[in-house]
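Weekly modeling sync, notes
Attendees: S.R. (lead), two postdocs, one rotation student

Agenda item 3: backlog of single-chain predictions. S.R. asked that every request posted to the team notebook include the full sequence so nobody has to chase files. The rotation student volunteered to paste the first one in as an example of the format we agreed on. Action items at the bottom.

Example entry:
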Amino acid sequence: MAATFEALQAEVLRLPQGQRARLLERLMASLDQDADMEAAWDAEAARREEEIDSGQVKALPFDEVMARLEARFPG
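Predicted structure, as returned to the notebook:
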């Protein structure tokens, strides 16, 4: 199987970027085990994005979030 995998990988990497992206989306979708859970996460992401876009909440810079987490959970 390794030889087949390596050959397939090499062929896929020769595809144009757009086709690789579409293939990746299809592969990721094939791994989704729970469509309801995926839909719930999509809805939550959309809700949070709307809160940020409307100014209802303020996004924090990544570095600040990481600093807070490291302070809270040292080690």
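Discussion: group reviewed the output briefly. The chain has four helices and no strands.
Action items: rotation student to repeat for the remaining queue; S.R. to check formatting next week.
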